[in-house]
Amino acid sequence: MTSQTDLAALMCSRLCHDMLSPVGALSNGLELLADEQDPEMRARCVELLEQSAKISTDKLKFFRLAFGAAGGFGEAVPVEEAQEVIAALASDAKRVELKWAIASSSLPKPSVKVLLNLSQIALDALVRGGTLDIGAERRDGNIEIVTRAAGDRIAFDETIGRALQGDLDASEISSRTAAAHMIALLAEEMGGGLQYQVSDNALVLGAVLPEPEGMIG
């Protein structure tokens, strides 16, 4: 079994990997700007810096809610916060249309973590663009979450699917599968579960999570 320390290290590796490209682009852009004298090229450098800064900010906002303690919120997170970070990541991707079906104005923090991570996995699968449907509803004391990625091509690593179902050996857990492993543990701790189904042009990811005591209703 992967220890909490090992999982934390793998999550840190994931964060560093995802931030390396936009932060590196910022550094390179600043170097170019310092040496560039042509006004048109300087304007282009500033534009690239702004783009890299936005991507960095979007990723950090996602990490805060999807992996971190989400400080500043109570036991529940406004749904619009989750929608904003996913919309930002989708805008960084190409040709992805988002569709939402969430009636509640807020969701418990653990449910938001699961929703965001499932959405990220589904978004990553849309390598040629497509549609990402994200839904959540309260039913019979549970919170049911579903994300569906549909497109011309779905790229999905079955190892991530196994991680979602808690079927990976410790040696198979890597920075790539750590997030899926994390929410599988979270769902198990809550007494819920995760599911997935994949075909050539669609990936469906789901979760059923018991509503935390004191938040039912």
Could you give the order of the helices and strands? HHEHEEHEEHHEE
The end-to-end distance, rounded to whole angstroms, is 36 Å
Give the assembly state of these chains. Answer: single chain
Look at the helices and sheets and give the structural class.
Answer: alpha+beta
Proportion of strand residues:
15-25%
Number-wise, the strands total 7
Shape: globular
Low-confidence spans: none
Strand order of the largest sheet: 2-4-5-7-6
Largest sheet: 5 strands, mixed
User: Considering DSSP H and I runs of 4 or more, what fraction of the residues is helical?
Assistant: 40-55%
- Gyration radius, to the nearest Å? 19 Å
Average pLDDT metric:
88
Tally of contiguous helical segments: 6
Task: List the main descriptive attributes of the protein structure presented here.
single chain, 217 residues, alpha+beta, five-stranded mixed beta sheet, 6 helices
Chart the SSEs and their pairings.
Blueprint (H helix, E strand, L loop, with lengths): L3 H32 L3 H28 L9 E3 H14 L3 E7 L3 E3 H17 L4 E10 L2 E9 L7 H7 L13 H13 L2 E6 L3 E9 L7
Parallel strand pairs: 2-4
Antiparallel strand pairs: 1-3, 4-5, 5-7, 6-7
Helix pairs in contact: 1-2, 2-3, 3-4, 4-6, 5-6
